Amino acid sequence: MASNRVRVSCLLAAGTVALAAAVASPTGPAIPGADAVPIGWNSWNAFGCDISADRIKAQADALVSTGMRDAGWRYVVVDDCWVAPERDPDGGLVADESRFPGGIKPLADYVHARGLRFGLYTGASTQTCAQAFGGYPGATGSAGHEAQDAATLASWGVDLVKDDWCGVGADADPSPARQEATFAAFRDGIRATGRPMALMINPNSGLTARVPGGADWSSFATSARLTNDVTTAWSTGDGPHGFQGVKQVVAAAEQAVAAGRPRPGYRPDADMLEVGSAELKPAEQRTQLGMLAMLGLPLMAGTDLTALSPDAQRLLTNPALVSLATDDMALPARLPDRGGLHVWVRATAAGRVFAVYNPTDGPVTVDVGELAADRATDLWTGAAMSGSLTVAAHDTELVSCA
Ligand code: GAL
Q: Does the CB atom of residue 304 touch ligand 1 within 6 A?
């Protein structure tokens, strides 16, 4: 059992665990004042193009009625397919009037009136991703319209922009240089508005010239997607350009954080959470939520909040998870693996937190005998902890020393 002893001690002084301070981007934050760790909900994974103002309002209402808003979930993000297939005569974006009557501003107002923040999608190249894949008409991408679109979105009260590069058929030049130019133009457009909208970019969909997650986008955006889209599987077995399972996105997130990608005003983005999805085991849902929170990354729920199971609701209304994700005291540090378990530690304002993640296909028991039983709690349940800890296959235990 010796190799399965984890030094999960709440008694050591914080300085005894090496925690690297985040290094600032050489050019400073891409959008000064913008929120780099948005916590909220996004429409795409649950509804795809089947969205309307009414449907989005129902999700905003559910953020309130489930208790998620009060637990810290703040953003309502409308993804692809809100836009009318044609720009207006001045070249401006307009919403599809049949599904978003009166446009986007009344919807943003509705969301704001509930104490929430509002996010909106645009395509970075000449088409949105649904347009590029033939699932939606038009070619309304922001390429060449970046400053105009940033100003339009700011005038509607948008707080977060998802700027999505979909290279397949969406742009004549799917090169990294072209991608960088379009993202930089949108960033500059946002800066010119004076409204510190968060800018979540996705440089991965359909661009094969670059390995997803490999580049440092901290001077371009408040966050950049690490992978292609997550799907409701533990592992798809696909390479980095294919759909990703939870195990794969968590691995990409661990790698990015270990490589020092988080910076002041910037975090890697590991895509939507599938907490509440019937295809994922409860342990896998805990791992996706717990590990992204532990690593301090954005949390975007991707399931239908009007139909959450009691278990999913319990996970999503635990304020400790949001506090953990948004705590900016220190970077998480990875400790040596134990018995196949990944162990992370992080100093937070509320005390030290450990994550013990089991990516293997069987349970692993570790000796955590050094835990100070009077202080260590299971962050999922609030129960006191000591002695040994068995982490089920695919599960993550979070130990808080608050
Ligand atoms: C993809 C993106 C998804 C979603 C979709 C919309 O490129 O990764 O998260 O935004 O486009 O069509």
A: no
396-400, strands of its sheet edge to edge: 333-338, 341-348, 351-357, 396-400, 377-378
Task: Quick: pLDDT tens for 376-402.
Answer: 889 999 988 877 889 999 999 999 987
Smallest CA separation from ligand 1 atom 1, residue: 129
- Asked whether the beta carbons of 273 and 292 are under 8 A apart, the reply is yes
Segments in the chain below pLDDT 50: 1-2, 13-20
Residue 152 structure tokens: 């339009």
Judged by DSSP in three states, 16 sits in: helix
Q: Residue 187 corresponds to which amino acid?
A: R
2's CB contacts (< 8 A; 6+ apart) are none
State if pTM tops 0.85. yes
Q: In the prediction, which pLDDT does 20 show?
A: 44
One-letter identity of residue 383 = A
202 lines ligand 1 (CB under 6 A): yes
Interatomic CA distance for residues 43 and 136, integer angstroms: 16
Residue 45 near ligand 1, beta carbon < 6 Å = no
Give me ligand 1 centre to Cα 204, in Å. 10
pLDDT (tens digit per residue) in 146-203: 999 999 999 999 999 999 998 766 677 878 888 899 999 999 999 999 999 999 999 9
Candidates 154, 183, 187, 334; CA nearest to 259 is 334
The finding on whether 399 has its CB within 6 A of some atom of ligand 1 is no
Ligand 1 atom with the shortest distance to the CA of 164: 7
Query: CA 290, 292, 295 angle in degrees (round to 5)?
Result: 105
